[in-house]
Amino acid sequence: MAAAPKNPRPCSIADTLALVGEKYSLLVLREVCLGNGRFDQLVRNTGAPRDILATRLRRLLDAGILTKEPYSERPQRFEYRPTRAGLELEPVLMTLMAWGDRHLRADDDRPMVIEHVCGNELVPRVTCRACGETVRHEDLMAHPQAEGWTVTGPAAA
Amino acid sequence: MAAAPKNPRPCSIADTLALVGEKYSLLVLREVCLGNGRFDQLVRNTGAPRDILATRLRRLLDAGILTKEPYSERPQRFEYRPTRAGLELEPVLMTLMAWGDRHLRADDDRPMVIEHVCGNELVPRVTCRACGETVRHEDLMAHPQAEGWTVTGPAAA
DNA sequence: CCAGTGAGTAGGTTTTCTGGACTCACCATA
DNA sequence: TATGGTGAGTCCAGAAAACCTACTCACTGG
Prior knowledge:
Two copies of one chain form a homodimer. The first copy, chain A, has six helices and five strands, in the order ααααββααβββ.
């Protein structure tokens, strides 16, 4: 018998995680978004082994999520910065942080508070671009576009 | 010399990823949110090896993100379902999917379209709960709550 | 009785992570 | 000019995870 075909559901979540889902990648992105883009800062702040960090950085550069900008000639030194695409991953970081703050922490134990220009603390909320309402699970219907990938809960194709 | 202390930045993103950041975990959550909660469905749809899937499921159960509900006595069969906490991770899945759809796919090649009750296709957007505005990177200021964890870009503590 | 299914477990190999030391280029100071 | 320090990595051996294949166990349906 031929080996298992191994074709999981085609999915943009999976594709995105293939780029940024490895250990430390999103922490690197966090630091870089905070402006801490130097190698040793990344090592200290993420806890990644230097070795692993180097391969993660290469991958994120290749994926167009980070860029490497010189901040000193002689000794050549670089700083990693998010690209536009990298910055567009910030919502992922926000929603992860919000979940952790809600479920893993006491109210007075949040390690970081983010302030929005409006002057309030940022509590991120995901809304529907079309109608502006908060997105709730019960309000969603999934429509797989490929044959054979059914969903049994919210919807049928 | 004593070994490196290895204390990375305290962070809810890291804490959340410690629970759901391993390979396949978020794909399992995706399937479970879609209503495909049985072991063999999860194997097929995520592509995870059966033994890895078993350990991921245990971890997600322990973390209170999934529950195991019987759908048949004799033969005892269970189905995994998201808890409230699990459903609250859906925004993470939405934002990951939106990013992948935007950056890794052509417009006519999205593997899944989600319809909101409002009748439109869901395009998720992260907004500030206080003022309702779309969250943009430039509008944020990060305030680390612990000493020593500076940010050099958006803000100082 | 036999084949088939759903939900795992077991074992052995391959891949990846990890921690530590090492390099290389440069600067500062004595 | 030696001496030490920093930033940005690389290299390596041991530990841990992932992977694949096969196997079990409890049924069910014909």
